[in-house]
Structures are given as structure tokens and as C-alpha cells.
What does this fold into?
Amino acid sequence: MNEMLKGEMPTTAQWRPAGHFTVKHGWINDPNGLIFFKGRYHLFYQYNPHSCDWDSMHWGHAVSPDLRQWEELPCALVPEEPYEKDPEGGCFSGSVVIDGETMYLFYTGTVHREGRLIQTQCLAVSRDGMHFEKYDGNPVIAQAPPGCGGDFRDPKVFKADEKWRMVCGGSDNDAADPSSHGMVYLYCSEDLFHWEYQGILFRSDDCSMFECPDLFPLGDRWVLTASPMNRPDYAPNRWIAGKMDFENCRFEPEGEGVIDHGTHFYAAQTYPDRDHTLQTTAWLGGWPWMPWIRNHGPLALEGTRGILIHPRKVTADENGFPRWQADERYPEPAFRESGNRRIYEETDAPFTCQFSCPADQSIRLVLDEGDEKTVTFTIDRQTGTMTADYTCADNDSQYGVRTCRFDPSVSDSVRLDCDGCVITLILGDGFFQYTTLLYPPSKRIRVEGLKSFIPK
It folds into this structure.
């Protein structure tokens, strides 16, 4: 205690991000909708207002004029109805759409009855974006599709071919059983209240459950994203692009990849911003079934857990496949150069480091925490690999050693964004992204092996 009073121990304030959304108090996880409505952005998210632990889920609600300054509002949805009131259930994840002057909130009501998980799709309506009324006819989808196990959730609603469409994630058995198969189910509606089951849109052989599916157009393709459970490589997010036939419920994949390769990036969801540009937000967190998640970090000392990323723009690469661009950049801190090193001075404010890594070299980015504690990112352009080594990190950032592949032919630009505990490494202007949560006492960055720099 005396050491803390002397200021020799870090405080949690330095880890709270400034450019990414988090709440003043409580637990948050999946984003459930980010929509521009009546002159401002409305953000909805999974929320427990009573503690910083996961519990019966509410829908949190915040508004912003610019996606930077947020005002937290009372909960949009509170689990009070029989189809959602449960200490281990609640108003689970979903999405939001606007039709005319009305906002429609779709979510999964979750309860446990006689040892069974029961998940149904439900609807709430708002005409002012401030007051929310649950539909008297809930649930709008009362039964899981044929052959579906108890896991049936996360409705994402959108319009295509003049009809409303909904994709839901599921499992053909039990999401906790690695031998199960992840499923995506498709529904359609004329009026948002009455839904018709169309069939299985996608079935996966390498995961037990598809959580938080999304489906959106990009050029002449449609892109399906989801967070798979129990995938062998435990990738927390995935995209699949291909041709879509809604009337026949047929999706033909033509390419796939990972949105963000990092330890913390889950439940991604797209939305159109005020200029109708497609953006993505996601939860920066993890579940205990992920092998690298040991705890939820020291921000809980402030009574909060969970962060949502600042939105990333969705664009197409030269082959028409998706990529995600983080356009929000921070000031570059002071640095000094010594031989093939660049050393960035310690700062508590959000910052961006930018440099180049030509094809004939490899570089290391070392986050020096002091007391021989480090996190090291090694970028090898010759082999097309990025290795994150956390073995010497602080106790809250022990994620082991992770190696990811990238296309070495993309742009040689390298960027590191640091905002509180959120660290994002970006290669090739968004062709590769790696987001992780770190809790170092200091943020002194060393870049080693540099032969050239991007001009300022």
C-alpha cells in the first residue's frame, strides 16, 4: 500500500482507452447495433449495469454526434419478460434497423427451463430512439429450425431483394461440444414482424457454433462474417465472401479469411454511417473457452470490463474481397533514432507509430514495460509471418506465443496504434490487422531492425 501511495504502482486510468468506447461502470461485450437515427449515432451493446462480471444481459445504450464523444443513457432493454428473464440468460445479442421513422431492435431472448437452453428471436420498437417498447407478439421466432440444438441466437437483420432478411447463428448439437457444427440460418419477412424460415445458409465443419453472424453486400459479392466457437486455431472471427441467391437460400463461397488476427476481436457487426459508408465495430474481449484468456485485465479495479473498437471502414481489395481500414489515427509521439533502431518516448496519451518494412528485411517492435517485462511483435516480410511473443509480459498480458501469416506482397507500411490498453498492429494499409489488450506499466516502444523510415 505504501508503494502505491508513493505513485510507484500504475493506476488503471492509464489503461482506459480514449478513442474506443467503454462504459463508466459494468460489464459489456457484443455490439448489438450502431445506427444513425434522428441526427446522432445510437450504439447498443450487451451490458450488465450491476457489476463488471457477465450476468443476466441487458442492452446498454449510448449516443454520439460524431462517434467520439459518447453519452451513456438508461438501458434500452431490460430482461423482464418470461421469455428472457433468467440469471444466466436475458436479452442476448442482435441488431438494429431503421424503416421510415421507426427503429427496430432484434434480439435473442434466453432462458433455461428444466435444464434446457431456450433461445427465441424477439423485437422491440422505438419511434424516438429513447423509449423502447417490446412487441406484444414476442417472440417473433419462437422455435429453433429443424435439427438445431439449443444454441440459436444473434439475429442480424438487413434488406435484400426488396425483402427483409435475417441471419441467425446456431449449432446442430451443443455449442460446447467441439464435434458439433456451426450453422447460419436464413429467414425473410415482408413487414419485420412475421418471419419465414428459408433454410441453412452455411454449415461449418471446423467450428461448433457460429456466434454473431452478419451478411452484407460488397461489389458483386456478399460477405458472411461470424465468430466461430471451438475452431481448431481458435480464430475469434472469420469472413467468407461469395455469390448469394436469397430466394433459394444458396451461398457459394469464393474466398475467406480473418478480419483481425489478434487475441481480442469478437462479434463484429457492420452498419452504415451517416454517409452510408459501411463500417464495422466489434467487442475487444474474450471468453474463458479461448485458451489464451486468463482474466479480463485490471480495468475491473475500476468496476468496468469490456471495450468496443472504434469503427473500421469496410472496403474491397483489388480482387473484390473485403478488408477493414482503421482510419482513426493518433499523434505520433517524440522518438529518437540510433543505428537501426527507433525509440518512442513513453506517453499516456493515444499515439500512432508509423514506418516501413521493405521486402528484404524483418523488424521487431518491442513494448518495453520495464523490469525486464516486454511484449515483442516480429514482422518477417520474407516469410510473411507476424509473431507476437507475450511470454515476458506483465501478468495480465500472458497470451503465449502467436504466429499469423500475411501476404508479403502488400504495401510495406507498418502502423502501431496504442490507445490505453488497446494495441493494434496494421500492415499494408489494412490488409492485415492484429488487435490485442495489454496492461503494461509503461508504453515505451522500440522498433529494431529498421533500414528505412516512412517520411513524415
